[in-house]
Amino acid sequence: MKSTWSQFLLRWLSTTLGVLVAAHLVGGVHYDRFGSLAVAALVLGLLNAFVRPLLFVISLPLIILTLGLGIFVIFIFINALFLWLAGFAVTGFDVDGFWPAIWGGVVVSLVSGVLNRIFGVHQPSPTDAANPRQPRNPAGSSRKGPPSGSGPVIDV
User: Fold this and answer.
1) What digits encode the pLDDT tens for the residues 40-50?
2) Helix (H) or strand (E) holding 156
3) DSSP H helical ranges for 1-153
């Protein structure tokens, strides 16, 4: 299992490469120097880590109302908002409007998602936060020692 810092650095690298690709593919996403791009990727990472869960909880009624189909639209708008906020907050990194933010957010999400999968970066889950020191047990591996549950589960 990779350390928390190495996971953070790999996620930041994949986000930075995603923003770089977006800046080259999407008209309206610009950076002056690589340092501005790296700081913008850091801002995106912080927004994703601390603000996205709150926005997800706020949007739950809409997600439920659309039977889960609205989650894609909501995530696209959240990514666009975060990219626009990064352009607003970081000097030397600019997002020119709504559509560049939408397409830039899509590109950043796709590129960083693929790179995170390639790098083997673990997506944090609520159970990881509850048990930060508990090692993950990969599927199919055998555990030694007593079972961790209270006994067999019987579904009726």
Assistant:
1) 999 998 998 89
2) none
3) 4-25, 34-50, 52-58, 60-65, 70-89, 98-119, 126-130
In angstroms, rounded to a whole number, what is the distance separating the alpha carbons of residues 88 and 98?
A: 13
Placement of tokens 């907050």 in the chain:
89
DSSP 29-58: EEESSHHHHHHHHHHHHHHHHHTHHHHHHH
Q: At 65, is the secondary structure helix, strand, or coil?
A: helix
**CA–CA separation, 121 and 7 (whole Å):** 6
What tokens appear for 20 in the block?
């770089």
Structure tokens at 16: 């930075």
Which structure tokens are listed for 138? 């990969």
Query: pTM surpassing 0.90?
Result: no
Q: In a 3-state reduction of DSSP, which class is residue 93?
A: strand
Cα 44 to chain center, whole Å? 9
Half-sphere exposure (Cβ direction) of 31: Cα atoms closer than 13 Å = 25
pLDDT tens-place string over residues 11-23 = 999 999 999 999 9
